[in-house]
Amino acid sequence: MLSLILFLCIYFYLIAHFLFVFHDSDFSIIDKIFFVMLLVSISFWGVHCVGYIDHLLKSILMYRSQINDDPPIDEKMQPKVAVFVPVFNEKPEIVEAIIATATRIDYNNFEIFLLDDSTDDEIHRKLIKLATKFNINYIHRENRRGYKAGAINDAIKNLEKDVKYLLILDADHCPKPNILTELIPLLEEDAALTFIQTPQYFTSKTKDRLALAYSFQQHIFHKHVCRGLSVNNCVFMCGTNVIIRLDHLKEIGGMDETCITEDIATSFIFHSKGYKSVYLDQVYAEGMPPPSLSAYFTQQMRWAYGTIQNLKNVLMIFLKNPRSLKPGQWWEYLILNGSWYFLGWTLLMWLIYPIAVLLFGVKPLILEPGNLPFLIFIVMIGSQFFTTIRERGYRIRNIFLAQGLFFSLFPIYIRASIYALMGKKLDFRVTPKGRTRIISFVQLYPQFIMLGFLIISIIRGIWKVVTGQITTPYIHVIICWAIYSATILLFMFYFYLEDIEKGKEYGR
Known about the structure:
Structural class: alpha/beta
Strand order of the largest sheet: 3-2-1-4-8-6-9
Helix content: 55-70%
């Protein structure tokens, strides 16, 4: 209810501001076009700020940890669990690390299945030896129908009838021994509970700049956002560290093979059919962050494309059967999750607006500091800033690193949204791990071109102010806006230089 009230306040505020400007004869057509773009951008961030604040409040005030303090299930009564580790051309040494830790899970009734979709013959042979070494089940497919979802669905057909639960682990997430002894009792106590999602945790105790920034980004989602989603019974499966009641998965026909982000798509199917989910804020596995910008961009491209791809299905279901989800769940799937990866366009607007004003003479249109969207934005940024520092001990420098990494994504998300909306096929590509291809300078052209324009606009803007050529109100704010944006984008050099250093280390 709070999120809806704040959303409506923002909406009517912006509409009023929009009508005021469009009836002002001092604004040219170009000014008004840019103002419309600015309003759309601000309204987008206003909605998502409201969503974050809603999640944060529910996380703090309403979320309750559901860790079972009772003694574990009797060893003789432990239901059988299948542990799936889907891989595709993953480096065998990385796969071996997770298999080794998975075999040490403190539970007496589970089997490990290595689901190998690899097309590299050498990797294929090494993974067979790895499966033999650890005495685990090995399944290899000649075709990649449905990608990861298809591999899981095909493997389910090979399970014995007594398997009750399915634990899915990505090849870069090593489980802790207590993952089953603490999660299984929760599922056993509540027969209506379909799946439990646990955090994707990435350690920040490293000098790796990309790892630090990525760890911060993931903490934002896998802490208060996911806890808020759990309060709303709208937890999204995140592809790994999730345990699922197998008969419920079979009832919906298995994992969704039509979307390259099968986790969010399958979560939507579960919730639209009334199934129950829970997020347990307890680390049961530790993962590896993307090792390079190239790997990071590959991951984000897939997430953005798949989420927008799924949005089209969510919208169709909403139009056909609006009662299949509760209003709060529609808010999550249709508005917050569904629109999130369009943020590439709003980031682009954020970056080009000061350029348009300082270089091309567009009239600056600033929503005064007292406006509602600005205040909500400040509350969101402030809450993220203080909670992450308190909870994970992040330094301010690392938070700015994370923001620089975030801003660098605008061309990735724009391309993903165009491809998804046009229906252009995008193959499933796993996030590269370990030693990976270092990003080329050409791939960063959009970011560097934008940075160049920002620097030129700053110099030109300062010159005009100093020489008295421009006295437009708020011009100083616009110059500061451009300086901040350029500074944030400059962090991209920081990551790029680190990529070059990694390339030298790997001999490439």
